[in-house]
Amino acid sequence: MLSDQTLPWIIAAALLVVVIAVVVVLLVLRRRLTQARRAADEQARQARAEQDARDAHHDTRMARTTAEHAREKEALATELGTENKRLADQKQAALDEAEQTRAMLSTGLKYEATSRELIAAACRAAGADVVLLTNVVFVPAASSASGRFVAQVDHVLVGETGAMVVENKGWRGIVFDGRRPSSVFPAFGGLFDESTMSPPFALQVVDDSPTVLTVRSHLGTKSPASQVRRQANRLSDRVHESIDARLWFDTCVLYSHPKATVFAVDQDRSEGGAATQIVSTPTQLEAVVRELISRPTKKLSQARVEDVTALLASYGADVLRFGAFAEEARPASAAPVASAPAPTPEQAPAMTSDPVSGTASDTAPAADTDTASAEASDRTQA
Q1: Closest by alpha carbon to 146, among 240, 102, 101, 82?
Q2: 274-285: per-residue pLDDT in tens?
Q3: Which of 10, 107, 245, 297 has the fewest C-beta atoms lying within 10 Å of its C-beta?
Q4: DSSP, residue by residue, 192-238
Q5: Do strands 249-255 and 260-264 pair parallel, antiparallel, or not at all (unpaired)?
Q6: Residues in contact with 382: Cβ distance below 8 Å, sequence separation at least 6, in sequence order
C-alpha cells in the first residue's frame, strides 16, 4: 500500500505527465497549424502568380487584339477610301464619256450630212437592200474602266451580203491618197519630201488664205485607210461583245467635199488583209455599193441585219433604210428610224469627175468642212 507521503508524488507525477502530454499535443498542433498556414500561403502565392500570369496574358491578348482591330480598321478605311475613289473615278469617267458622246452625237451629223446623202444616192441608184447608219458613237470593247474612250464611226452599211464601214473625209483642196504627188505631176517631186510617203498615207494641199498653201500629211496610222480599218475592228469587237455575232466589216474611205481634187489609188492594201476602197466620185461610190450587194453568198439573215441595226441605232446612229429593209417591221427596242426620201436637186450634193484627173471637182456649193472641222470628228477621243 502506498503511504500518505507517496500519494502526492504520484499525483504530481501524473499531473506532470498530463501537462507534458498536453504541451506535446499543443506543439504538434501548432506545428501542423504552421505548416497548414505555410501551405495556404504558398497556395495563395501560387494563385496570385497564376492570376497575375492570366492577367498579363489577357492584357497581352487585349493589346494584340486592339492593335489588330486598329490595323483592320485602318485597312478597311483605306480600302473604303480606295473603293470610293474608284467609284468616283468611274462616275466621272461615265460623265466624261456621256459628255463626249453627247458632243459627238450633236456635231457628228453636221459633218456627215454631205457624205450621208452621197451614200444614200448610191444605194438608191444601185437598188440596194441595205441599212445605212450614220454617226455611230460607242465605247470600244477593249477599253478598260481606267482608260475608257469613245469611238465614232461615220457610216455603216449593213445588208445580207455583208457590212461596210465608210470613213468620210470632208477635205477640200488637192488630196493625194496612196499616190505620190510626183506620180501625178512630175514637177511636184521637188515640192514634197516623198521619202516619208510609204503607204498608207494621205496628203492634203489646201489654200488657207489667198497667199498661203498649207500641206497636211497623214502618214501611217494617221492615214484615212489605216484609221477606217482600226475603227472597223473596234466596231466588230463591240458588235461581237454586245450580240454575240462575229461580223466582218469591209472598209471604204470617201472623200466627199465638192471642192476637192483627189488623186488616189483605187484600193489600199498596205497593211495586209482585205482592201480598203478609196472613192471620191458618185460613180466610184455606186460601184462599191454594187459590189457589196452583188456578192453570191449571204453572210447575214434579215433578222441578224435587224439585230445589228437595232444595236447601232441604240448608239445614237441616224438610220436610213433601202429596198427590202425599208418595209421591214421596226423592232420595239430599236431607235426610231426613217426610210430614205428621194433627194431634191437642192439637197443632193453634186460631184462630177474632173476631165483630167477623173476625180471629184467643185461643181456644187457645200459647207466648207476643211481639215480642222473634219478632224474634230476624227473619231477617237482619248
Answers
A1: 82
A2: 899 999 999 999
A3: 297
A4: S-GGG-PSSEEEEEEEEETTEEEEEEEEGGGSHHHHHHHHHHHHHHH
A5: unpaired
A6: 149
Place of cell 452621197: 118
* Helix/strand number for the chain, H first, E second: 6, 14
* pLDDT per position as a tens digit, 321-366: 999 998 643 443 444 444 444 443 333 333 433 333 333 333 333 3
Residue 351 to residue 125: CA distance in whole angstroms: 15
| CA distance readout (Å), 80 to 69, 75, 280 | 16, 8, 57
Q: Give the side-chain half-sphere CA count within 13 A for 372.
A: 4
- Going from the C-alpha of 324 to that of each of 182, 338, 339, the distances in angstroms are 46, 14, 11
Record the cell numbers describing residue 70, joined without a space. 486598329
For 199, how many CA atoms within 13 A lie in the half-sphere containing its CB? 16
Asked, as a colleague might, if the bond just before 343 is cis with ω within 30 of 0, I would say: no
Closest CA to 352 of 279, 258, 265: 258
Cβ-based neighbours of 218, under 8 Å, separated by 6 or more: 201, 202, 203, 204, 224
Q: Length of the chain, please? A: 382
Spatial distance between the Cα atoms of 315 and 317, rounded to a whole number of angstroms: 6
In the block, which residue shows the cell 483642196? Answer: 173
Q: What is the pTM of this model?
A: 0.63
CB-CB neighbours of 291 under 10 Å: 15
Q: Are 347 and 117 in contact (CB under 8 A)?
A: yes
